Amino acid sequence: MFSVGDKVVYPTHGAGIVKNIKEEKILGETKAYYVLYMPVGELKLMVPVDNVNELGMRKIIGREDARLVLDVLRDNKSRMSTNWNRRYRANMEKIKTGDINEVASVARNLYSRDKEKGLSTGEKKMLEQAIRIVVSELALATDTKEEEMRELIIECLEENIEIEDKN
User: Fold this and answer.
1) What is the distance between the alpha carbons of residues 38 and 47, in angstroms, rounded to a whole number?
2) Which of 29, 59, 99, 137 has the fewest CB atoms below 10 angstroms from its CB?
């Protein structure tokens, strides 16, 4: 399904590069694994080849789709539950989908809510996770440095806040 050098997304961790495909014996069972290097956070993951579909692993988006994700970040926030627990669960489900647009909407909505009312510690961590995931994929999709992409994403999120202030 994937080859060494492919740029892929592992839903809750973000985008990375397939560095190797190797067999490992773990708990007495030999399986093939993708060895992923996640540049944002400098993380190394081993993902069983047999499980990639269930885990939602996919190739990263293209450069053109990256522009559309930036538009999602600039877009007006969508309604979220006022109940912290429901909001948290709904946002976590969006992150788990691995859909970059869903993750971007979580980042946008939580960023906006943080500016309006503040966030709990759990939601602050979720906001940072969502931003990190979006940064990782857009940086790889556009061959942009992580720091530059993070700045661009924050600018887009701030534009959303400025638009709301004008209304």
Assistant:
1) 12
2) 29
Q: What is the pLDDT along the chain (167 residues), one digit of tens a residue?
A: 899 999 999 998 999 999 999 999 988 999 999 999 999 888 999 999 999 999 999 999 999 999 999 999 998 877 777 888 899 999 999 999 999 999 999 999 999 999 988 999 999 999 999 999 999 999 999 999 999 999 999 999 998 765 444 44
CB-based contacts of 18: which residues, under 8 Å, 6+ apart?
Answer: 2, 3, 4, 5, 6, 8, 34, 35, 36
Please state, in angstroms and rounded to a whole number, the distance separating the CA atoms of residues 84 and 122: 10
In the chain, the domains with their CATH numbers are 7-59 (2.40.10.170), 63-166 (1.20.58.1290)
